[in-house]
Amino acid sequence: MCKSRAFTLIELLVVIAIIAVLMAILIPTLNRAREQGKRAACLNNVTQLGLAWVLYADDNDNKIVNGCTGKGGENPIPADEDGWVHWAGYTDTTREADQIKAIKEGALFSYCKSEKLYKCPTGLRGEMRTYAIVDSMNGWPSGPRIKNRMQIARPGERAVFLDEGWVTFASWSVPYDREAWWGSTVTVAGILAADNRHKDPPPVRHGNGTNFSFADGHSEYWKWKDPRTTSYGRLEVGSTPNQPGNPDLHRVQKAVWGKLGYTPTG
User: Fold this and answer.
1) What sign does the dihedral 77-83-86-87 (CA atoms) show?
2) Could you say which DSSP state residue 29 is in?
3) How do residues 184-206 score in pLDDT, each as one tens digit?
4) What is the pTM for the complete model shown?
């Protein structure tokens, strides 16, 4: 009579160990592939928003949409303009339905009618918008602003949208005339800390970088090179926005303002 031979305990342990090794190899690869997919989807979103921005200018004698969030007449939006989206409040205190309503009421929604395009796939639960327009594109008056598309000398080099993540009520700020990001030294970690909510640190998205769209309609992913950028972007305790010689900062300032309003260090 034949007896079937079962696996021994040692054989089972060997098989389990092999599976564990394969999983350890494959999971990081799968995670990277998933993140690359999200980054590509986000890049498509900012491209679509950038094209909507161009179409708005086409329909309005090259006047560009106001880059702040709010209704006409709300500071600093003139009464005869309207924000590209309206402001519904910070995402951790505002219902999703109210955030979507604010998006749909904005001046750009008729050119980009899918509310899903206003949020990166890596957005936090409850965030309905993660994108912002930069100050120079008819946004917050923190430096030389552009209000008409014909003022843009090199549109392929001038940023319009970026994937900010946690958004504030204004446009996205980076100083024009000093070698620093927008904000102050971090004393309490995290974006939701009381002293950090209004800062505009460099967004750390999609593997230590972020997506930008430009005035000619194209989009790019920029990966940060200086560790100070990511430290302040994550709002780590002790990190400071003053970063002399930071190539990431210089690159972003040139994309936002067209030039540096100061003499850089190094």
Assistant:
1) negative
2) H
3) 999 999 988 988 988 999 999 99
4) 0.88
